[in-house]
Design goal:
Elements lengths: L8 H16 L8 E3 L3 H11 L3 E4 L1 E3 L5 E8 L4 E8 L6 E3 L27 H4 L17 E5 L5 E10 L2 E2 L5 E2 L2 E11 L11 E4 L7 H7 L6 E6 L5 E5 L10 E4 L10 E9 L2 E2 L5 E5 L6 E3 L1 H15 L5 E2 L9 E3 L17 E5 L8 E3 L5 E3 L5 E3 L1 E3 L10 E2 L1 H4 L2 E6 L4 E6 L48
Parallel strand pairs: 5-12, 6-11, 18-27, 19-26
Antiparallel strand pairs: 1-15, 2-14, 3-4, 4-5, 6-12, 7-8, 8-11, 9-10, 13-14, 13-28, 15-29, 16-17, 16-18, 16-22, 20-21, 21-25, 22-23, 24-25, 28-29
The structure holds 2-acetamido-2-deoxy-beta-D-glucopyranose (2 copies).
One 2-acetamido-2-deoxy-beta-D-glucopyranose binds next to loops.
Protein name: Aspartic proteinase Asp1
Family: Belongs to the peptidase A1 family.
GO molecular function: aspartic-type endopeptidase activity
Amino acid sequence: MNPKEEARKLYFFFFFVFFYVFVLRGCFQLSEATKDSSVGRVKLQNRRIGSSVVFPVSGNVYPLGYYYVLLNIGNPPKLFDLDIDTGSDLTWVQCDAPCKGCTKPRASQYKPNRNILPCSHLLCSGLDLTQERPCDDPQDQCDYEIGYSDQASSLGALVTDEFPLRLANGSTMTPHLTFGCGYDQQSPGPHPPPPTAGILGLGRGKVSISTQLNSLGITKNVIVHCLSHNDKGFLSIGDELVPSSGVTWTSLASNLPSKNYMAGPAELLFNYKTTGVKGINVIFDSGSSYTYFNDKAYKAILDLIRKDLNGKSLTDAKEDKSLPVCWKDKKPLKSLDEVKKNFKTITLRFGNQNNGQPFQVPPESYLIITEKGNVCLGILNGTEVGLNDHNIIGDIFFQGVMVIYDNEKQRIGWISSDCGKLPNVNQEYGEDSSEEAYPRGFGLITELFSGTDSSKNLDADGEL
Ligand SMILES: *[C@@H]1O[C@H](CO)[C@@H](O)[C@H](O)[C@H]1NC(C)=O
Ligand SMILES: *[C@@H]1O[C@H](CO)[C@@H](O)[C@H](O)[C@H]1NC(C)=O
């Protein structure tokens, strides 16, 4: 319920204006999907250019509603759980400055220590957010305010600090990265934001963590996520996990003021047959738990599902408010396996992708079983929540698929995958490919934490 596409009101307004201009001008003809056949050569080059950082992911669509990674920041390092969000750029953590609207105790908040960036910093102006309080003096602290489409917001200051990382090639690095120290979080909407310490912004903008790691020459600007149906998965920045074959690619919409990963046009299929819904654009947003379709696509899918359920044992469960559309069986359901045979595969077929597999969504990737034992539709009416004609595909659709956001080639790719299994990239470097590929928890350097006393971070006076 928390699509986290950046959505400050003014920004959103302009976004839609440009979006419609863009659609009317028919720029989507540029879109294409191709199956990559030259990855082998590309990979050789990549070895010289950069490595990857890989993080295990935890979380689920229901009941949690988010997926997160653990990341350490600062010196001494402190561990933060961050919601992974390809729908926004800015990474931020709850900030002890002191904090309003923080959900974590002070000891688990980030404490700034004379590392607040000035207004004149490149990434401050590159935030692309309308400045609530424009800078009078370039030496003033760089304030940011970010709003999400679920009405949650974070206000804070930009800081820079160390991010100790273990790269997939075995090296450790401690780049200085810029992120937000959020000292005022609000969530007036009906749904609380994820209780994580903050957000890991993986959008297309300058301040995005992947863009920053790329400008430092550490990784390619490529993001890979793989979320399983069983609370696990992984996230990678860099392109070493991109399979050398079998990936279907489609180009990202360009010329947009938006930093969203938008692809299209796509055709919507149900049970491998056309629904009549064509030419839709979709935003890939890991910060959204569910998928939002515009009125037309939503109605088409809902009507087809309802038609299929006619005469079956599943009947409307209006009393279950977990999601807008739920069904009950004669007995409470324990698992999707009991009912998934009553539902068909949904498919998004992008542009010209004759050689690739369209984006397939089996029932277990668009339905949930609630605590009350009902089955609910994880596709929501985007028009109803103010997304207008936008289609946002969220975590629920991403389960069991490796999704690749390739900012180097302005394209997005997917391949079905067992995301519960940790990837093994060491063989890329000619090393023994044992199950110990990531002996120390992937990108996270866990030994840094043994004996780390977080109270050490609390002495400096970091009031903002
Ligand atoms: C691993 O990659 C990083 C970043 O590209 C590079 O600086 C480092 O030298 C590499 N280490 C090894 C062992 O190749
Ligand atoms: C989707 O929401 C819009 C706006 O609230 C509403 O007019 C429309 O009937 C809804 N569609 C369906 C199929 O419920």
